[in-house]
Design brief:
Helix Hairpins, 5 helices, 0% strand
């Protein structure tokens, strides 16, 4: 077997398999029944055509028979009037009509036989079509019941395509759920053991620490600024917000006013300013 023959055989086998999958026996039976109905219609039409031809021949036979009868009457009348020549002419014409009548009778007999044959064939075909229709409906009902039973059994057993897809979807959902549960449990264990800190708590702690550091830095800057002002002006430093006692005066350096015998003297604290509502 050559390569081309093998390829052709493979294509024919695949085509037959595809046709078998695509073929629905119910549709095939309905199409066959339709073809038989078309054939029965053609047979009935043929019977009608033959009957029409037979009827036409019968009409011609009747017309010729009436003409022959009329010629016979004319011959009899011519003899009664002693016109033998006319009677002979009428009988001659009647004889010619006789041969035509014989041919038409033969045609009528043939058409009648053909019509009877077609009628019998039509009746047999009609009976066959009716039997096929009953058989077709029975086979279709059995096929439909078998198809429904097969689908139900496949659904119960889970081997049908639809139920297989549903089962796979359920399995995927269960796998994803189990994976998420395992991940959540692992993260909880890590957080509880301290190996993995809570990101939200860390972020909150960082915010508070940054705010406290900013406040502390601001307080240190204000204190240093007040000390610098007091040392520069030699006066009393301004009270900062939240302070009740003014800071002590900064020690005076050499050569500055207030220097004692030892050369250094502590500045006395400045009296606290009088507040409203208090006794001096």
């Amino acid at each position: 077997m050559t390569i081309m023959q093998r390829i052709s055989l493979i294509f024919r086998a695949k085509a037959d398999k595809a046709l078998d999958r695509a073929e629905d026996p119910r549709e095939t039976l309905d199409y066959s029944y339709k073809r038989q109905l078309d054939l029965l219609t053609k047979v009935r039409r043929g019977v009608a055509d033959v009957a029409t031809s037979r009827k036409r021949v019968e009409l011609q036979v009747n017309q010729l028979q009436q003409q022959a009868d009329k010629l016979t009457q004319q011959a009899q009348k011519a003899l009664s009037m002693n016109r033998e020549d006319l009677a002979r002419e009428a009988l001659t014409r009647k004889s010619a009509l006789g041969s035509q009548l014989t041919d038409l009778e033969q045609q009528r007999s043939q058409l009648q036989a053909e019509e009877d044959k077609l009628v019998m064939a039509s009746q047999r075909l009609q009976a066959k079509v009716e039997s096929f229709r009953t058989q077709k409906e029975t086979i279709k009902a059995k096929y439909t019941a078998a198809e429904a039973s097969t689908k139900i059994n496949e659904a119960f057993s889970g081997i049908s395509e639809e139920m297989g897809d549903v089962g796979m979807a359920v399995q995927r959902a269960e796998d994803k759920t189990a994976q998420m549960q395992a991940r959540s449990g692992a993260i909880d264990e890590l957080i509880a053991s301290g190996a993995l800190d809570d990101v939200s708590a860390i972020n909150r702690g960082d915010d508070i620490s940054r705010e406290l550091d900013a406040l502390s830095s601001g307080s240190d800057v204000e204190s240093e600024l007040a000390a610098l002002k007091a040392g520069t002006s030699g006066g009393t430093p301004t009270l900062q917000s939240g302070e009740t006692t003014p800071p002590a005066q900064i020690e005076a350096g050499p050569g500055q006013p207030g220097q004692g015998e030892a050369g250094q003297r502590r500045a006395t604290p400045v009296a606290e300013p009088h507040r409203e509502g208090e006794q001096p």
